[in-house]
Amino acid sequence: MVALIDEDGRLFGLVNIVDLLVVLVVVAMVAAGWALVAGGAEPQTNETENTTTVVTIEAQQLEPYVAEAVPNGSVGGQEVVAVHSKTVEPTTVFVPDRNGQLRVREHPRLKTATLRVELNTTRTAHGLNFTGERKTTRGFVEQDRPLRIGQRLRLDIGDTTLAGNVTAIEN
């Protein structure tokens, strides 16, 4: 009967046990490297769904005629589909009094508009993207930017253009 490991250190009398362990370690390392390079990355899906999303935008320090020119209802634009509601209030500013203390006052002319607007968006595996265009400082046009709270958007609403910060996103 053949011993499992003989006196020369061979497994079943055929191969040296140390050589076999070295070969197994090398094969395991090659398999792990291959899995890391080839199979470790998540598959990229380019599936997008065109949809609309209602967001709340606050635009501050607007001239009164700009705030009043924002229409209510369907806009049918490339970026903005509709304006669901609009609230216009005086802009709050801080002014120093005679003692140098800052006081909160309403600006005598400038307005703050809070708008609930329906935007054209795309839904991807990574979240919502705003499909409007924006020219950057270097002259490039950006499309499909991620839609985030706090983000500043420039919107064309009917015959009016304004910029404001996203304060809420409704899913």
Number of domains: 2
List SSEs in N-to-C order. EEHEHEEEEEEEEE
Q: Quick one: biggest sheet?
A: 8 strands, antiparallel
The amount of beta strand, in percent, is over 45%
Mean pLDDT: 83
Helix content: 10-25%
Poorly predicted parts: none
Overall body shape: elongated
The first-to-last residue Cα distance is 74 Å
Q: Structural class of the helix and strand makeup?
A: alpha+beta
Number of helices: 2
Secondary-structure map:
Layout: E1 10-11, E2 15-16, H1 17-39, E3 49-62, H2 64-69, E4 73-74, E5 80-96, E6 102-124, E7 127-130, E8 134-135, E9 141-142, E10 145-146, E11 152-157, E12 160-170
Antiparallel strand pairs: 1-2, 3-6, 3-12, 4-5, 5-6, 6-7, 7-10, 8-9, 11-12
Question: What does this entry look like structurally?
Answer:
With 171 residues, this protein is an alpha+beta fold. It has two domains: 10-39; 49-170, no CATH class. It has helices at 17-39, 64-69, and strands at residues 10-11, 15-16, 49-62, 73-74, 80-96, 102-124, 127-130, 134-135, 141-142, 145-146, 152-157, 160-170. Strands 3, 4, 5, 6, 7, 10, 11 and 12 form an eight-stranded antiparallel beta sheet that branches. Strand 4 and strand 5 form a beta hairpin. The longest helix is centred in the N-terminal third of the chain and has 23 residues, at 17-39. The mean pLDDT is 83.
